[in-house]
Design brief:
Elements (H helix, E strand, L loop, with lengths): L1 E3 L9 H5 L5 E3 L5 E3 L9 H5 L5 E3 L4 E7 L16 E8 L2 E9 L14 H10 L5 E4 L6 H4 L4 E5 L4 H10 L1 H8 L7 E3 L1
Parallel strand pairs: 5-8, 8-9, 9-10
Antiparallel strand pairs: 1-4, 2-3, 5-6, 6-7
């Protein structure tokens, strides 16, 4: 499925002009948008874009969103302190809720340094099969977690809105997923 990144699109209209199926239009925010019903998957938008904003996304990714109630992402503390993780599957431009996983409680030694590797292991044990972790704050274990997951920071509290932000920025998430030396992605 072809997707155009809002972060890279400059609204030049070259893809809209060249699309043989007339599946691309520039929306009122100035971004190119692909009507997937009309798209014939020719890839011309990828070839013509001077910004590299268009990409064929074939990956299926699993996301874990840190939450205490399933509606709002974890507030005030990092993702590892979440009561639960909402697990979502991404495929072909859609996010589907899979399950709610309870986080393992880990009693930290108050005298130890922040970013405890044992806590990272415990949280990771709950995240089996996950590719991307999303929350408001990741915390110091990000140095360990980014080896297994793409860490995504989203400061929007509503999980419904977080899902939309993920879909809007899937190009950047997929790019980071394929890197050896991953960095956290900040999306707003």
């Amino acid at each position: 499925m072809f997707h155009i990144s809002k972060n890279k699109c400059v609204g030049c209209g070259l893809c809209e002009e060249k699309c043989p199926a007339k599946a691309i239009s520039i929306n009122n925010q100035g971004f190119a948008f692909i009507d997937q019903e009309k798209c014939i998957q020719c890839g011309l938008c990828v070839d013509i874009c001077p910004q590299g904003a268009s990409k064929n996304i074939t990956e299926k990714l699993t996301f874990a969103i840190g939450t205490d109630d399933g509606k709002i992402i974890k507030q005030g503390e990092h993702i590892g302190e979440s009561e639960y993780f909402s697990i979502w599957d991404y495929s072909e431009g859609k996010m589907a809720f899979r399950e709610k996983r309870e986080n393992i409680k880990y009693e930290e030694d108050e005298t130890s340094s922040h970013g405890n590797p044992e806590k990272a292991k415990k949280v990771s044990s709950v995240l089996t099969g996950v590719d991307v972790i999303a929350g408001k704050i990741i915390g110091p274990n990000v140095v360990r977690m980014k080896k297994k997951y793409v860490p995504v920071i989203i400061r929007e509290p509503s999980i419904d809105r977080v899902i939309e932000i993920i879909k809007e920025n899937i190009n950047e998430i997929v790019d980071e997923y394929h890197k050896q030396d991953r960095k956290a992605i900040i999306l707003n």
